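Model it.
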Amino acid sequence: MTSGRLTEDEARAFLDANPNVDWIDIFIYDLNGIARGKRIRRADLLSIAKNGLMMPGSVFIMDPLGNCVEETGRLWETGDPDFQCRILSGTLVPIPVGNGRHGQAVMAVEVADDLDPRTVLQKQVDRLKASGLKPVAAVELEFYVTKPGANGSFSLNMADGVCDDPNRPMTFGFEDMDELGPLMDDIYTVAAAQGLPVDAVMQETGPGQFEINLKHRDDVVAAALDGLLLKRAVRTAAKARGLDATFMAKPHHDWAGSGMHVHVSLCDDSGKNLFAGDPISGLFKNALGGLRETMPDLMAFWGQTANAYRRYVPRAYVSLAAHWGYNNRTVALRIPHCSGQAMRVEHRVAGADANPYLVVAGILAGIQYGIANKIDPGPAAEGNAEELAAPALPTNWSSALERFETSQFVKDAFGAYFQDVYARLKQTERQNFERLVTPLDHLWYARVA
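Modeled.
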């Protein structure tokens, strides 16, 4: 995948190679990481490759339900103008499951927009590039295979029925992968068609929970897009088999949450890993210092939904404070067992439902801040980091958003306009979510209040 635009020749070659594809989904990602776009006919592809496609600017101020959030000040005040978009070269692919009649492509705005999450990430890449630093990244995602129900509900089912034993050992096992083997094959088939650098799949702790790792890229914008497209590939493959998949951060209170782990390193123009040292470089230490200091300010990136904050509980391999350490899964910033060119940090805080564009942008902003200010990260955590003192993360949504919207670091790194609009967007979502009366309210309080 590249940042170049789809050419008419590339579009024509796709049509020739895929005569059965009648419909093509063309989409852009909003701030929530949700694909928004249009489904076009095969006959319209060449015209769109030549002329582009128009999308309303309000696509970037939608909540997860697709409602435009007026409180952002970017709807009526602007007249909600259309934006010219172009299909990204390398993203036009067939969907090789189901009836084979569909394809997909990713588009990007032709003129950079401050609320486009892809643009937000690119700006952080450019800031590092100006200092002679080139980031490398890879995304890991956890998810549950589910059985869809009515009104958005689901059950955490296996292929042959409900898993009624949440205590059975599953991590690093193969039982669920054996039962869902055909689905895993389909996921890899779809990923291959999309050119996604999929690596290993691992069975996780929860019933029907898996983790899929993506290989690193030296184009971190493409690496973040890999994460978004992997979600779509998993859901597409599941749907073709009458199943579904959820990347909710905490789909069930008794079972493990699903996270997004991002591996990042920095290289120079020659490709040398600047994090490598004995055991790590001074620049890496400064990067860790910046990540630690800025992590609370960016909690609104790591946890982007109401559900995301249910994942932050003790003894769940989910960090509640900004620790770092070597080969230690209880820390937020883990340095895996590696050396030399493989030296990197694993950022372990974000939920799987977060937008990889924003998560990676936040990581790069923290790294840049630490290097520019030569921040000392302090000593590495040893043992159970939950028992050690460290800057606490705001693990409720209200506090996280308040920290984000008042942060000088966020304003400097992302601009006052983005800071204000993103905070308004998420504050409105939070308020709308919290005002709803749920069945749990009735169960707990109806007869005792």
